[in-house]
Design brief:
The complex is a heterodimer.
Chain A: H1 7-40, E1 56-58, H2 63-90, H3 94-119, E2 122-128, H4 143-149, H5 157-176, E3 201-202, E4 219-224, E5 236-240, E6 260-264, E7 276-278, E8 291-293, E9 300-302, E10 308-311, E11 320-321, E12 323-325, E13 331-333
Antiparallel strand pairs in A: 1-2, 3-4, 4-5, 5-6, 6-11, 7-8, 8-9, 9-10, 12-13
Chain B: H1 3-9, H2 14-26, H3 29-36, E1 39-40, H4 47-67, E2 76-78, E3 90-92, H5 93-103, H6 108-135, H7 144-166, H8 171-185, H9 191-199, H10 209-239, E4 253-258, H11 259-284, H12 290-293, H13 312-320, E5 326-328, E6 331-334, H14 337-363, H15 379-398, H16 401-408, H17 412-444, E7 455-459, E8 465-470, H18 483-488
Antiparallel strand pairs in B: 1-4, 2-3, 5-6, 7-8
Helix pairs in contact in B: 4-6, 4-11, 6-7, 6-11, 7-10, 7-14, 8-9, 8-14, 13-14, 13-15, 15-17
Classes of the chains: A alpha+beta, B mainly alpha.
Chain lengths: 356, 495
Amino acid sequence: MSDDPPPLPRLVRALIALLTLLRLRRARRTEAARGEAGRDYGAEPTSATERAAGTRRETGTSARAELAVAIALVLAGALGAVFCLVYAFDAGDTQLLGLALGLALLATALALILAADRVFPRETAVEPRPRLAEGRRSAESGVAEELAAGSEGLSRRRLLVAAASTAGAGLGAAALVPLDSLGPNVGQTLDTSPWKVGTPLVDVTGRPVSAAEVTLGSFITAFPEGADMRELGSPVVVVHVDPATLRLPAGRAGWAPGGLVAYSKICTHAGCAVSLYRSPLDQGTSREGPALVCPCHYSTFDVLRGAGVEFGPAGRPLPQLPLAVRADGVLIAGGGFSGPVGPSWWSVRREGPTKS
Amino acid sequence: MSDEDRRDVGTGDPDGDAVRFVDERLGASPLLRKAMRYLFPDHWSFLIGEIALYSFIVLVLTGTYLALFFDDSTSTTVYHGSFAPLAGQTVSEAYASTVSLSYDVPAGLLMRQTHHWAALIFIAAIVVHLMRVFFTGAFRKPRDVNWMIGLTLLVFAILEGFAGYSLPDDLLSGMGLAIGYGVALSIPFVGANVAFLIWGGQFPGGASFEPRLFIAHVFLLPALLASLITVHLAIIMRQKHSQFPGPGHREDNVVGTPLWPGYALRATGLLFAVAGVLILLGGLVQINPVWQYGPFEPWLGTNGAQPDWYLGWLIGALRLMPALEIHVFGYTPIPNPFFGGILFPGVVFSVLYGWPAFERRVTRDRARHDLLDRPRDNPWRTATGSAFFSWVAIIFTAGSADRILVSVGIPYVSQVWFFRIAAFVVPILVFFAVRRICRQLRASELHPLREWTGTTVARNKAGGYDPIARSTPDAPGGQSPTRGARSGTGGRAEQ
């Protein structure tokens, strides 16, 4: 028992031995490299071609190196064949396909780099760097004279320059103007939305939303009935909060029947869908009130205060949609949005109703 | 047999025959010989740009394959492919074809994922290459024009990447496009017109938008990239590579490995290595699984959406910007996304484009430079550059604040305030720290990565040189009177 060395130290000793071996090997190789470098510097060129002074060229290889390159190349070919087989019999196996082709390419890379390093001639050469225009005046190149000679014998040079400029301007404009076909005029598009007084709210399947189904603390997405759902002015979020906690801006009395509030779902910052709703479990004790949050840049809108910006980069509140409840309990719009929908542009008014 | 006759029968040497065939028709031999003797200086950092080039080749090959299956239309269809959870859903043709080329086209998913990985690595390699060029002063005359071409390549590469991941019309790409629309709309005075021209109307855009995105991604931008890459390389070949200082390296020469055979083998090896790694990533590491994100509709969004990494700096800037908008008479000439989405990248690229001229003006150094600086050789430039890149890096990190919240639990609002302050403080700290490190490294001549192996000599009375310290394993230490021997202490001399 006491004679046997414990297993861990044995492992450590093995590691030390391995490291020492590697170190020795490296030292030997460095020595060898240094010796070769010394021998090759300034040696006679080994090929018939004349080499510049300072060139260091080393030729010759070992049978082992050539064999290694050959093995890597054959391996690459075999792996390429494996790829073909996998493709033929189990093309759905992306992992196997990638493994075979990737390793085939890596084996080729290994062969090429080994070949460059051990098999083919290694050479470090020196050559003079091409001179560009150092120490030479541009005039000496003769280009300026040639340019000047090209306009010899002209009498009304300025007239021609002016006429050519006109041609350039006209043709340039003619080339650019068709780009205007790429899009419609902006006009009032950004100010409008499909919501009108009395437009029923429908869900994503087109079914009317009744006031009763939006329970306290819940959050639904609704659209104007019969309108294009993909239009930015369409989607709204409807949330249900305790009416006593609502602090809507002046002039919005009656916009939130029974604590049902609707805001545009398109963020006024960069146009993402405001799809996160933070609803505190206990609105009485929570420090933070209910808020709508955009997942793109985390603009946070205070639901109780007309979706004013509480945090994040948005510069405007979410436009509010006045709500009303129809006799059959279906939610309808009480008018258009309180402001323009979507990201701001230069002529956006901070406040002001949208056109329907 | 005369020479004339031999020309027609061939010499039996296939290499010679091929050369003769080309030469007799194009007279290309002198040019070919020059190209084969083109010298590539040996330094690992010169390979980073090559990695970008080879990623681009992989992108073109895989992208061409994908384009043969992708349908650039947003008209709707009912999905009936083999991905069961989507069965029966109404989705766009673009989305359906992306899912089916991933699931139903043999090797389609491998190509698609390799394409995506290649895009990420393409831009990463460009950015690292840009930093290498910056910190070694390789942008100085005569390479200042090529520096600007490189920057333009980066701009187009980012746009190309954004256009590419916007194509599948999935939830993530739709959210990215919404932000792109918001940013375009925020350009003062012309934003709405620009956005309407690009999208063919208001977001999510007309029926022509998806084909426009497609033609930009598969033709316009790749053609621009390929042309600029060609010019970039042609200018390098005309000016020859720059090189680091070293024994025998001078401003007026080039020391390196000739193209034939050494460098051609090594470069092709690197091409295959890059392609191999990208294919392995594409086969083994899932990326952008659009069938999990679902199709995009303007009223849908999801938490934790992260763009491709090269847009992280922009989303970070959009998130960090306080709710500032410029209002005049109730109008909004500068909406908020302008600051993070246009002004910030504008400043970053203006600094980069303007740097060579700025440095020329500050240092009054208008000379041609073909020998590179080590970063420490120019503490002022290295420190300023590090501060600048750290500023961008802080804002980049802020783009992931929501993921940091999920994985570490630091509240989002606190993080935003931390990053807002850090964006101003960290660059200043980095400037002074890096300048100090550079100066000390330069004073000590210590190389953090390489040991010194050499001999320190002193002049003797006879006018010759005597070795006084030899830093080799068999002759350790010696006297250490000079800085050379001091560097030796970092290496083998201690053994």
